[in-house]
Amino acid sequence: ESAKTVYESELNIHCIGADVSWKVQLNDKQTEQILNLYNDKVSGYSANLVRQWKKHVWFNPVLHDPLAAYYAIDNSVCSMEKVWVEVETSDVLTKGFTLNMDNIYKYLKDKQDKPRVLCAKQVNAEKMIDIFLKHTFNN
Prior knowledge:
The structure is a single chain. The chain has helices at residues 2-7, 18-21, 28-35, 42-56, 64-73, 101-104, 125-137, and strands at residues 14-15, 78-83, 85-87, 98-100, 117-123. It is elongated, with a radius of gyration of 18 Å. Helices cover 43% and strands 15% of the residues. It is an alpha+beta fold and 139 residues long. The strands form two sheets. It has a three-stranded mixed sheet. It has a two-stranded antiparallel sheet with strand order 3-4.
């Protein structure tokens, strides 16, 4: 419900949804190189985090949070679009989900007069992964 209040506030909000951030996933080779790093530097600590990740999930790391953090530094990594976003607050299973209402109502002739937020539509995943690897693991 807090997210609903924020999205309806007309603040200058930028958001990157999971539909975009899931595109920034390390491949097998990148993950394997990280898993083989052992040292007492930031890269070694980060590699240990990836090892912990791999103990609990079968897929390679997805850079959700690094993407959001890097976007704050260099917003050219994502292309954005203003959209009407609603937050589901009533259903037990989908509570907290965000919906792009412009997508749902895209066939209406007149657009709804609702507050809009900047949402990522595309990400330059290759650039983001390269920057992440370079600055975190010196690759």
